Amino acid sequence: MSESYAGKINRKLMKKRRIIDSAAGREPADLVLKNAVYVNVFANRLCTADIAVAEGLIVGMGNYSGKTEVDCAGRIVLPGFLDAHIHLESSLVSPREFVKAVLPHGTTTVVTDPHEIANVMGTDGIEYMLQATEDLPVDVRFMLPSCVPATPLDESGAVLDYRAIDSFYDHPRVQGLAEMMNFVGIIAGDDQPVEKIVAAQAHHKKIDGHAPDLIGNDLNAYIAAGVYSDHECHDLQDAIAKLERGQFIMIREGTAARNLESLVPLLCDQYSERCMFCTDDKHPSDLLEKGHIDYIVKKAIALGADPVTAVKVACHNAARYFLLNNRGAIAPGYLADFVLIDNFQDFNIEKVFKKGVLMVENGTVRDFPAPEIEPYLTQRAHSTFHLGRLTAEDFMDHRPRGIIGMVDGEITTQDAGYSDRIDVEYDVLKIAVVERHKNTHHIGIGFIQGYGLKSGAVATSISHDSHNIIVVGTNEAGMAAAVNRVVELNGGIVVWDGGAPIAEVPLAIAGIMSDEPLETVNEKLESAKEQAHGLGVGQGIDPFMTLSFMALPVIPSLRITTRGVFDVGSQSYV
Predict the structure, then answer these.
(1) Could you read off the pLDDT of 224-233 as tens digits, one per residue?
(2) Inter-axis angle of helices 518-534 and 95-102, to 10 degrees?
(3) How far out from the chain centre does Cα 112 lie?
(4) Sheet-wide strand order for 229-230
(5) pTM (2 decimals)?
(6) Closest by alpha carbon to 260, among 227, 297, 286?
């Protein structure tokens, strides 16, 4: 029997009275952090007091007694950290495993854009992620994917217009519309992207941006359309131009893109109030070896930022931007999400509390249940490959094809001419993208130079943003075998040589995430990298991340799609 409205009000009334009585000191709090030196984001300084918690909320700072008391002398108490923009799928593990990885680093809230899984599963992918993140000890909030696919040139598993995502705005954990990558369409006033902005505004939601190096009237038009933020700034001039036009800037320090050093001057009185931190993507080794938002805060302090300002940018500013008005501060009525550190220089996290419950102590995470996911969605997520078995002949094409020239240390490429054959001696390898969502048998073929492979093939089902299978090889038979093995695994990364896989990383959830623990995935991933480097892939190249971006036809100059090599500048196939 469902609870009546009157019953609900009465239950909440009893809870509210208990909060008030604890705040007033008439009854003991559930938890008191004694002798706490804490960051006050409203006064922009350190304060000292007992911090009292009842019913998962901070009820007061002052002199309190509690049922449980924790002496915080010699420690600094911070609000829980908030990642303003991340794709959870980039961790290559399930949301539960992601939470287990970031909670010890003090992250208590993340805002995710599930566009990776939505490109594979459509709205079922969004629903899967909503269910897979329910009631986790890190609050997972959502921005709805704005560009599925990222461009009409892609062949993804779904095409989502504003009608497809509209009902999700009613979900209590949906904050708005995610990064509007199609800034060209917005500036041109094209119907489909502008419709999505209009619909998000009709629901009174935030709209995040993605517009690197946009300037002048084009930038004005993009912001005037209703885009509130940007996380693509890689230099100070770009960021300040956007700040001066009223946008909020998400300072990104992730795995694929690191912008903190360039943008740390923004952490000053003039600009910091409109800045926040994000990671965008975090791969397993990065999470395990460096950390999460705590790593950004520590690095910002080392680069000269004021510690209190850096902490405020890591929690309070993002909470205000997303209208999450009960988090990001240590004050009465806010969620009791705390991080205890030793000092600002070493920044070692000793304890993490979520809603007043001790969830992490000295790196050990308290166990928590996995969310329940509908069997249909689980089965759907593990059955996303729809293509037949391939042979060497499928990758043979004797016509001249464009050569994608890799650029050292960059994901941009250059035009390296044409070839009609593999030439390992000159590092000209065959590259292909295999459509895997709808069994179209579309296979785009081209060549790549700069990858370095001397033998075998490398294939992966992580290829942004449509996540078809991308493969590079020194021979067509190895390419076909590597792709077939990816399909047998229901997705993953395969390094193939000598007639067999010599390394593989299964990614059975939509072909982009693993069911296994983060540590296991990281071990397999690092082993696969080692094997790929052993076959000749350059040591300065991430063998798989590099490939994953070669299929994204919005980054200059040459890319490869399921239809062949594409020149981004001229918007034509070569």
Answers:
(1) 999 999 999 9
(2) 90
(3) 6
(4) 229-230, 248-252, 275-278
(5) 0.95
(6) 297
